[in-house]
Amino acid sequence: MMAVALSLVGCARPHVSPLAPPPYRADIGAGYDVTWTALVRALAKQNLPLRAIARDSGVIATDGVVTPIGVYADCGRDGDDALEGEALVNFTVFAEPDGAATRLQINSSMRTQAHRKGSSGKLKGRPVYACASTGRFEANLVDTIRDAVKH
C-alpha cells in the first residue's frame, strides 16, 4: 500500500508559481495635489471598490476584485498546463510628494479564486495558489494618471 502511494506522489506534477515582481514604481511629473486627484479619478473610472483612502498619508487600498487569470494575475502552471479561471486581486497605491513631482508605488496581492488546469474541466476553489501581477493594471493606471495631469 505504501509503495503505491509513494509511486503516485512521485509521478505527480508540481505546481510552478510565477516569480513575484517587485512593487511597481513610477514618477509622475506633476505636484502631489494634481496627481492625487488624477489617481482618484482613474480608480473611479475603473469602478474599483476602495477599502481605504487617506490623502494625508498618500495611501489608497482596493477591496478584492475578481478578474480572469491572465489579465492582471499570472497564477503559474500545473505541470505543462497554465492555470485558467478567476483570480482575486488587491492593489495598494502609495503616493509621495517629491518636489514638483510625485512618486507612486503600487503593491499587489493576488490569489486564485476559482481555477482549472488548462482549458478543460470545472472551476474549483481548492487548492488556493498565490499569483503574481502581470504589470498590466499598474502600467495602465500610471499611463492614465500621466495623461490626466498633462491636460
From N to C, what is the helix and strand string? HEEHEEEEEEEEH
Strand percentage lies at 35-45%
Low-pLDDT parts are 4-10
Rounded Rg: 19 Å
Number of helices: 3
Can you count the beta strands? 10
Quaternary structure type: single chain
Shape: elongated
How does this structure look, described?
By secondary structure, the chain is α+β, with helices and mostly antiparallel strands. It contains three helices and ten strands, in the order αββαββββββββα. Strands 1, 2, 3, 4, 5, 6, 7, 8, 9 and 10 form a ten-stranded antiparallel sheet that branches. Strand 3 and strand 4 form a beta hairpin. Helix 2 crosses helix 3. About 5% of the residues have low confidence.
What labels describe this entry?
single chain, about 150 residues, alpha+beta, ten-stranded antiparallel sheet, 3 helices
Topology, please?
Blueprint: H1 2-11, E1 15-16, E2 24-28, H2 32-45, E3 50-54, E4 59-62, E5 65-68, E6 73-74, E7 77-78, E8 81-98, E9 101-117, E10 130-133, H3 136-150
Antiparallel strand pairs: 1-7, 2-9, 3-4, 4-8, 5-8, 6-10, 7-8, 8-9, 9-10
Task: Offer a concise description of the structure.
This protein is an alpha+beta fold and 151 residues long. The protein has helices at 2-11, 32-45, 136-150, and strands at residues 15-16, 24-28, 50-54, 59-62, 65-68, 73-74, 77-78, 81-98, 101-117, 130-133. A hairpin with a 2-residue loop joins strand 7 and strand 8.
